[in-house]
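Holo prediction. Input below; ligand is LNDFFVEH.
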Amino acid sequence: MTNEKGNHEKRVLIMVSVEAEREIIKQAIEDIPYIDIEVMGVGPANAAANTTKKLIKSKYDLVINAGIAGGFQGRADIGSIVIATEIQAADLGSESPEGFLKLEELGLGQSKIMSEVEIAKKWAAHLEKHSLPVHIGPILTLNTVTGTEATTYALKERLPEAKAEAMEGFGVATAAKLFNVPVIEIRAISNIIGPRNKDAWKIKEALNQLKNAFAVIEEVLS
Ligand SMILES: O=C(O)c1cccc(C(=O)CC[C@H]2O[C@@H](n3cnc4c(=O)[nH]cnc43)[C@H](O)[C@@H]2O)c1
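Structure of the complex:
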């Protein structure tokens, strides 16, 4: 992403849901002039609206949705980093007596947006080089944090490849797609998805891993 003088030609937008995520990423990247970080609020509606607002105002070449997330047991442990291969709206569709019907099955659109897989792989390779635990795979977007055994089981059964869930990726990706800008989602795992127990969330640990993940961002974008 550099020109022949070694200057960056590309601009990168990082969208996070809360100030604590912005602050920790800022610590990792300090002041890289071609990267902006924006706090958008929680949930896909905030994510889509605020990403759109940024993309209307300025031109970007890559949008990154970053933050903490829940990991599926046995697929992404607390403190690991997950980089999306695809960003999937897991509750966009219809319930039916036969089971969940996704938007595609209803003929009503798309519930999945591809992430920039080449960047995902490159980023994962850099993190592995630094001995950081990293997974690549689908990350789900949900309006509601999963908090029961029943929902956890249903999601794991229906989406066996999914590594993690969060609440903003599909909103960010929908806005990015509208502007033809590549998108990537990266999350550090703060909790295991299951019956709600906020006391068990390791937010500090996850934020620290998010910082580690962004410490290599210049190498990933070079
Ligand atoms: O309380 C704090 O100090 C604090 C610091 C940073 C972030 C938070 C949040 O509560 C962030 C909310 C954000 O986290 C995502 N998230 C995390 N775990 C899950 C989950 O199991 N299921 C769905 N989403 C999750 C989500 O994207 C929220 O926007 C607090």
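The chain has one domain: 12-221. That is the main takeaway for now.
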